[in-house]
Specification:
The complex is a heterodimer. Helices cover 34% and strands 17% of the residues of chain A. By secondary structure, chain A is an alpha/beta fold. Chain A folds into two domains: 4-70 and 80-216, no CATH class; 221-258 and 280-348, no CATH class. Chain A is globular, with a radius of gyration of 22 Å. The chains are: A alpha/beta, B alpha/beta. Chains A and B meet through strand 4, helix 3, strand 10, strand 11 and helix 9 of A and strand 3, strand 4 and helix 1 of B.
Chain lengths: 353, 271
């Protein structure tokens, strides 16, 4: 059982800056190149004397960028196994509930199953997640559809809930406890009235988000697996893929998408095995030697993406591989909207959503 | 902690020509390496890339591994033009392989097509090593033409082993060919087996596997007793990279050998 504390805004800033002595701290900053009505936030290495920003909703970047890289060396030819040691310790500030829920999929893939990915595990162990309640939402946010609440309940080391001139700090792990102990001067035990205040703020946001989502009539967690299974031969896939430009953006920006390709890099000194993120929306994704391709059509590839998210992961992990962050909706140049694809399936299959 | 992506070094000791576009590569790993029949490996040309293959040698022989490979794409073409004594990389073994203990006391009916006989040769060697544990071993093998038959010298030798029954066919014969002519399905009749205690194992090109499976069901085999070697573009071999997903399975870690019962409700399994 972990505790809840209070920290003032000024002290929080000081606390995070002091963490920089031991950790590389990433925190969200407002993106200057933003052209939309909404303000976007992106993780950046916290600079000296820079004021920490509490982002009201998730950043543009998915959490996975800190644990697997779009292209990285994973092994050498040949020689002994190199120990993965002394990776820089990292703090990620501003993580949201959707990120944590989505990251459960990454953990399942890289930490569980037949083997553990050592590089991923070292990065995971060396990283501290300081999450925060959402205090607002983006137009595309739909975590509630998947029964994910907009404040983290698990999976963080420390979680911040803004309250008055400061924050309630919930401890979620032994690493979090250790931080509180080490910087005890900043933290005072939370009072019942403060915890009640947190609850009221949380409920008020859930209520606002619910009212935002209600008219959208979204597909629910209980019905989604049956929908994508029954909808295998529905023309939804063809229809929505008409505007796909095969950029792979939806895959790369997704908190849960984890696919990669092991490739080789020629080097006269030492050849290397590298891992590159791959996208199931690419024509090359499923192609085999000789050119045969079970996913030659773009519609097959969209269907592959959806059956992976809503059938495979529900079968194998019990949860859909979508956290409702809406990143894929924002990134898509073809305006393909995951919510609309599912709704179209539901409509065509006449399933009540 | 172990690096799961690290290839081990193996010397390419010999290259045996099996047909115009199929060669067997004899590898000598420089570290301990063993596999169970039906498991696959990732064979890599350092710096150039890798591809998945199922060894064709006897798993009881530890110091050498044979991999029989048809020239089909970039990596296999590079392998086919490789000379002896170069270093290759091996990762694996991956997957589950054939559940031999389930075949004990049974008529083991094996159907192979083309280069699909390669992984089946490894299975045959495993069966031959303990032939008394099985009631019968029946092999039906089809190739495109007499020139495309692999392991030409070995097949007659295998036929001499007790309780082993082998019939081959070619799609198109030639002037020298005295054997059966016709698709593999044409020799799947009058089989010397007892359906009540038989298992069927199929490996070959997808179209052949499809029609053989349908034929086996027709003959009365239960979906549970039909073992299929499935293939996709496995990359990591560990159920992490995503590529070889088939329904709610990954071929690399849940297979590559599946019973038809496991797969029959999945769409487009033969694509």
């Amino acid at each position: 059982m972990y505790n809840i504390y209070y920290i003032s805004a000024i002290q929080l800033n000081e606390f995070i800056h002091r963490l920089k002595k031991t950790f590389t701290v990433f925190a969200p900053v407002e993106r200057k190149e933003n052209f939309t009505r909404e303000t976007d936030y992106s993780y950046k290495k916290l600079a000296e004397a820079e004021q920490i920003v509490f982002n009201p909703y998730r950043a543009v970047d998915p959490l996975k960028v800190f644990f697997t890289h779009s292209k990285e060396e994973v092994s050498q030819y040949f020689g002994p196994d190199k120990e993965i040691i002394d990776l820089k310790k990292t703090v990620i500030f501003g993580v949201k509930a959707c990120d944590i829920a989505g990251h459960r999929i990454q953990d399942f893939v890289f930490l569980e199953g037949v083997e553990v990915d050592a590089l991923y595990r070292v990065r995971r162990e060396n990283t501290i997640l300081i999450s925060g309640d959402c205090t607002d939402f983006k137009q595309v946010c739909h975590c509630l559809a998947w029964e994910i609440l907009p404040h983290p309940a698990w999976g963080f080391d420390l979680n911040l809930s803004p309250l008055n001139e400061g924050y309630l700090v919930e401890v979620g792990s032994d690493k979090g406890t250790e931080l509180i102990r080490k910087f005890a001067e900043y933290f005072s035990p939370a009072k019942d009235v403060q915890i009640a205040g947190r609850l009221a703020k949380r409920e008020s946001l859930i209520d606002r988000l619910r009212r935002h989502l209600l008219p959208q009539n979204l597909v629910t967690k209980d019905s989604v697996q049956k929908l994508v299974k029954d909808g295998y031969n529905i023309d939804t896939w063809q229809q929505f893929m008409q505007t796909c430009v095969e950029c792979g953006g939806c895959n790369f920006i997704c908190d849960t998408c984890h696919c990669f390709l092991l490739a080789d890099k020629k080097d006269h000194q030492q050849n290397k095995k590298i891992r590159i993120w791959d996208a199931c929306l690419y024509a090359s994704y499923a192609r085999v030697a000789g050119g045969a391709n079970p996913n030659k059509l773009r519609a097959q590839r969209l269907r592959f993406r959806f059956t992976k998210k809503f059938d495979f992961f529900i079968d194998n992990l019990g949860i859909p591989a979508c956290c409702g962050c809406g990143r894929c909706i924002e990134v898509c140049p073809g305006k393909i909207d995951i919510r609309e694809v599912l709704k179209d399936l539901a409509k065509k299959l006449s399933v009540k959503t | 902690m172990k690096n799961i992506f690290r290839p081990i070094e193996a010397t390419l000791e010999d290259v045996i020509v099996e047909s115009a576009n199929i060669k067997t590569f004899v590898l000598r790993p420089k570290e301990d390496f063993s596999f169970k029949t039906g498991q696959f490996i990732e064979l890599t040309l350092p710096g150039l890339g890798e591809a998945p293959f199922t060894p064709s040698s006897n798993p009881n022989i530890k110091e050498k591994i044979d991999v029989t490979i048809m020239k089909a794409g970039r990596i296999t073409s590079l392998l086919h033009s490789s000379q002896k004594n170069i270093s290759l990389g091996i990762r694996g073994p991956y997957g589950k392989g054939y559940p031999l203990e389930k075949f004990h006391g049974k008529d083991v009916f094996i159907v192979g097509g083309g280069v699909g006989l390669a992984p089946l040769r490894s299975l045959l060697f495993s069966l031959f090593a303990e032939i008394d544990k099985y009631n019968k071993v029946i092999l039906r093998y089809g190739a495109r033409s007499p020139q495309d038959i692999i392991y030409k010298e070995q097949i007659p030798e295998w036929s001499k082993i007790k309780n082993v029954d082998i019939v081959t066919t070619v799609d198109v014969g030639d002037t020298t060919w005295k054997g059966n002519v016709g698709l593999i399905t044409t020799i799947l009749k009058d089989l010397p087996l007892d359906l009540k205690k038989a298992v069927a194992i199929v490996c070959g090109p997808p179209i052949m596997m499809k029609f053989v499976t349908l034929k086996l069901l027709d003959l009365g085999f239960k979906p549970d007793d039909i073992y299929l070697s499935m293939e996709k573009n496995m990359s990591c071999g560990l159920g992490k990279c995503g590529h070889c997903r088939l329904g709610s399975f990954y071929i690399c870690k849940d297979g590559p050998v599946f019973t038809y019962a496991q797969l029959k409700d999945i769409h487009d399994i033969w694509d």
